[in-house]
Automatic annotation (TrEMBL):
This is Repulsive guidance molecule C-terminal domain-containing protein. Gene3D superfamilies: Mog1/PsbP, alpha/beta/alpha sandwich (3.40.1000.10). Coiled coil: none annotated. It comes from Xenoophorus captivus. It comes from the Eukaryota. Keywords: Membrane, Transmembrane, Transmembrane helix. InterPro entries: RGM, RGM_C. Residues 1-189 form the Repulsive guidance molecule C-terminal domain.
Length: 231
């Protein structure tokens, strides 16, 4: 995961944060923990919450907070960013770097409803023939039960948890989905919008407000863990 903070007037110098599995640093790539030597340097800083597991990057000069975590062998991140910053892409810039604006390319997206239906059918078939679990050790029913332990509401975070358990069998994805929801509660100012449901996903994405909460959880196997997000 690479995040680039650009040189900003007399406030901060350009900084890059880079994290890899088992290497979640508490500083920028140059070893510094703030925006440099300029007057507003402390409006950009890296704060270590849990060593090796949880880092928060505060970019107050652009009203942005980024939460980076390692859960098991995977990196996740969540971003709270003002709408005007989200939409401030300059003409001619490389558009495909902006995950916050465009999400996953269409050819990398997975129809979860179809996947869920196939998983349920495979579970029934396995029960009839072997009486056992699916390929990765979870049936649709057991994956739902495991996710329910941490995520009692069946929203998109819950559905993401179920998908990941069925796809990988890696129990760490339960915690990845749980922390994604915890980050939403920490970053979002409106408790009525914590939960997102399948039927609301498209309409919610179209809504405009003073701030846009962008939660990008890289916990699906189809999504690359390496990304670059210039700010």
């Amino acid at each position: 995961l690479t995040i680039i903070f650009r040189n900003f007037q007399e406030c901060v110098e350009q900084k890059m944060y880079h994290a890899e599995t088992d290497d979640l640093p508490a500083a920028f790539a140059d070893g510094s923990k703030n925006g440099g030597d300029r007057y507003g340097a402390n409006t950009l800083r890296v704060v270590e919450k849990v060593p090796g597991q949880h880092v928060e990057i505060q970019a107050k000069y652009i009203g942005t907070t980024i939460v980076v975590r390692q859960v098991g062998r995977y990196l996740t991140f969540a971003v709270r960013m003002p709408e005007e910053v989200v939409n401030s892409v300059e003409e001619g810039e490389t558009q495909d770097l902006y995950l916050c604006l465009h999400g996953c390319p269409a050819n990398q997206r997975i129809d979860f409803q179809s996947f869920r239906a196939r998983a349920a059918e495979a579970t029934q078939s396995a029960s009839r023939t072997r009486g056992g679990a699916g390929t990765h050790g979870f049936t649709y029913k057991s994956a739902k039960a495991k996710c329910k332990e941490r995520l009692p509401v069946e929203d998109l975070y819950f559905q993401s948890c179920v998908f990941d358990l069925l796809s990988s069998g890696d129990i760490n994805f339960t915690m990845a989905a749980y922390y994604a929801f915890e980050d939403v509660k920490m970053l979002h100012s409106n408790s009525n919008r914590y939960h997102i449901y399948e039927k609301d996903a498209l309409s919610s994405a179209a809504q405009r407000g003073k701030n846009v909460l962008l939660v990008l959880v890289l916990n699906l196997l189809a999504i690359l863990l390496w990304s670059t997000a210039p700010l």
